[in-house]
Amino acid sequence: MYYFLYLEIPELSEKNLTYVAVHMAKEIEKDLTDIDINNLEIAELNEINLILTHFPDMMISFIKYPNLEIIAHYSNKNGKLAKDNEIIGGVLTGEVKDIIIKKRYPYFGKLSLADGKAYVYLQPVYVKGELVGFVLTHQNRNYLSVVVGEILRLTGTVLFLMLLVGIGYSLHYVFLNDRRTIALTKSNWDLQRKLNAVLENAQTGIVLVDRDLTITYINPMAEDFFKISFAEAVGKQYDEFIKSYIITDEEKKSSFLVHTLKTGNTVYKKTITFKVLGEMRLGEVCTGIIQNNLGQIDGAFLFIQDITDKRQKEELAAKTLQLAAAGEIMSELTHELKNAFMVLTGLSKLCQDGRPELKMLDEEINRLYRLTTDFLSLTRAYRAKKERFDFQQLVVEVLALVDKEARKQKVKIETFLHYPPYLKGDRNLLKQALLNVLLNAVEAMEGGGVLKVYLDYNVKSQEIVLTVADSGPGIPPEILQKICQPFFTTKERGTGLGLPFTKRVVEYHLGKLMIKSEVGKGTWVIITLPVEENIHEKVQVV
Predict the structure, then answer these.
(1) pLDDT tens digits, residue range 247-264?
(2) Region of residue 251 (phi > 0: left; psi between -120 and 50: alpha; otherwise: beta)
(3) Would strands 411-417 and 423-425 be described as parallel, antiparallel, or unpaired?
(4) Per-residue model confidence as pLDDT tens digits over 276-316
(5) Residue 460: phi, psi to the nearest 5?
(6) I need a surface site. Which of 58, 297, 339, 483 has the fewest CB within 10 A?
(7) Strand 463-470's sheet: what is its strand order?
(8) Are 510 and 530 in contact (CB under 8 A)?
């Protein structure tokens, strides 16, 4: 009678279908000694018979993965266990396949099956950590007619009419007096859907485990951090899984989630160094417990935030702060030297009388003067003033300054400029840095060529990306590795401080300078500058 009255009420269907599917999946995972799900009939036949005795309106299908083939189908017919051989070997409907392909399991809802629509529950089966199949439980649509036939046969028409009165009263109770309960259930479904959306789109990695420390869920951000897919992670033991990423010095920290599950004590913002595909990554982790309706610990969760880039930027900011103090001292000293060389330059010109020694002295004084002037520009990178400005407009201005030299060198300039957000930094310093890069590129193409300038904005990393590409002869590898070292130059009258100055300016703005080159093809200079204001505010210049 219970099943007759409540056959199509969703919350009651979910409860029974879920229990049977989850129970059967756990029994299979516990009993099978290999990963061949075809052996489940031998291992679980008695259990299936017992289940269908208590739930006669239930039908159980077993699906093999990955070919998604129905390998067994059972139901209760006249109180006996029945195996439907016609369904075995059949294919699933499109709706069920779609649920599996999109990894939306475990799943409850009303789907189209071979014999029509019905409420179903789809539960994955894992053996030795590998997904081997699914248990699909759904309602027997013929069970209602069986119950009605038995009532007519045993009780007669009068008793059946009385039964209809009872049914009407029961339906009145369920659909009128319990409307708030059903509405609450629907509200819970909506909430679960929203929570799933939050988990899938969260910018923090999330790993869920059950009481046995078996991973039951991992969201896309955690997949990206650990470089592992959902199917590969779910079903694994957490302690074995996490230890494969922990370096020797951090092994004690791998037990944070285990400790939380055993004691209920949470962990908040602890930093762990992970080794992912040979690369060191810093993760900031938090843990917590998951409780059931009785307040008992039913599992635990791990939140993990990738802070590798953040830590690198903080270290760069600290380094810039230290260099700023040294830069102030160097700037004052260089300024005094510049003044002295100006006096010496003037005196050397007055003393010229044709002697080669005095001419050599004049050339050396001029060289030291240029060197001091360039060095003074280098130290100014530590005394920068910040303001918000249009970086795209700055690039246009610098291109205009090098246009004359480009024409002289028969260099054609091609631009591909987008409009990034405003940048907060020192406009004059960045202007000089870009001028150094563009002039170097033009001077590298002595016989003419093409200079391409690209300006883009990376929305994900919130960085401005400027690329300067020339078609010059390229730079040999042995020179390329030294090119940003102070005083290293291949130019006859160069000081070797242009690119070091540019590198210092870019690093002051917490950016990166990258130079790539191929002999015979050309050179590419790539400058990336972050635009987040909160990053810039961390740098305080003395």
Answers:
(1) 766 566 667 888 888 888
(2) alpha
(3) unpaired
(4) 888 888 888 899 988 887 778 888 999 998 888 888 777 77
(5) -65, -50
(6) 339
(7) 411-417, 449-458, 463-470, 522-530, 512-518
(8) yes
Nearest Cα residue to 455 out of 536, 518, 528, 382 = 528
For residues 11 and 399, what is the distance between their CA atoms, to the nearest angstrom? 69
**In the chain, % of residues over pLDDT 90:** 11
Helix axes 391-408, 427-444, angle to 10 degrees: 30
Q: What is the C-alpha to C-alpha distance for residues 297 and 499, in angstroms, rounded to an integer? A: 60
- Residue 173 DSSP label: I
In Å, what is the CA distance from 61 to each residue of 19, 39, 84, 260, 293? 15, 14, 10, 37, 30
pTM of the model: 0.38
If one counts every other C-beta atom within 10 angstroms of the C-beta of residue 223, the result is 16
Distinct helix (H) and strand (E) counts, the chain? 17, 18
E strand residue ranges, 292-327: 297-306
Residue with the two structure tokens 């210049």:
541
Considering all CA atoms of the chain, what is the largest pairwise distance in Å, rounded to the nearest integer?
Answer: 139
Alpha helices in 173-277 (DSSP H): 179-201, 220-226, 230-233, 238-243, 256-263
